[in-house]
Amino acid sequence: MGKARRGVGVLLAAAAAVGVTWSVWAAGTVAERASLKGVKPIRAAVEKLRPDVVSDGLDVSRLRTVMDARLRAAGVPAHRNAPNDLLLVVSTSPQKDGMYAVHLHLELRQLVALFHEFIRDPESRGMAATWRTSWIGILKTDELKQVEPELAKLVDQFTADWQIGNRGRRP
């Protein structure tokens, strides 16, 4: 077990040295695309960032601007007061060697109703994530802004699925 852990550690260290990144969850399942049918408008939202990441160059406004621009470019109706949130959560872990482990999690949160086999309660509504995707990377502290093109790719995944779901096509 010690050798295996050391091997994984060496692999991660080597990946960090060259700035390797991974896309981890692919969105676009049939159910996720179906959940996007008729969903509009959408509000780009970014969860509050950690203070150390902000001081190292990440900015909530800039990330939201990237999201808004990609939504609009794809023809997805976006509005700051929309009831549906395309929410970005940025999780970071600073490393001792001047690197950050970064996880971008993008999900669509929309109003949903609960249905039971025997009971349909119109009052049992709430916000839930119906579509999601993520990206993981290891970046140098001075390269944190490289999350912006990765975020653009995630939003592009969403807009492609939104367009499919709203054209009535089957995936």
What features would you highlight for this structure?
171 residues; Double Stranded RNA Binding Domain; five-stranded mixed β-sheet; 35% strand; elongated
Description:
By secondary structure, the chain is α+β, with helices and mostly antiparallel strands. The chain has one domain: Double Stranded RNA Binding Domain (2-Layer Sandwich), CATH 3.30.160. Helix content is 36%, strand content 35%. The protein contains five helices and five strands; from the N terminus they run αβαβααβββα. The chain has helices spanning 2-18, 30-34, 51-55, 60-73, 147-167, and strands at residues 21-25, 42-46, 84-94, 99-115, 120-140. A five-stranded mixed sheet has the order 1-5-4-3-2. A hairpin with a 4-residue loop joins strand 3 (84-94) and strand 4. The longest helix is centred in the C-terminal third of the chain and has 21 residues, at 147-167. It is elongated, with a radius of gyration of 18 Å. 23% of the residues are buried.
Radius of gyration: 18 Å
Q: Taking all residues together, what is the mean pLDDT?
A: 82
Order of helices and strands: HEHEHHEEEH
> What percent of residues adopt helix (DSSP H or I)?
25-40%
Rounded to the nearest angstrom, the distance between the terminal CA atoms is: 43 Å
- Residue stretches low in confidence (pLDDT < 50, at least 5 long) are 1-14
Main sheet: strand order: 1-5-4-3-2
Give the overall shape.
elongated
For the record, the CATH class is: Alpha Beta
Count of all domains: 1
Structural class: alpha+beta
Number of strands: 5
Number of helices: 5
Named at the architecture level, the CATH assignment is: 2-Layer Sandwich
Largest sheet: 5 strands, mixed
CATH topology: Double Stranded RNA Binding Domain
Beta-strand content? 25-35%
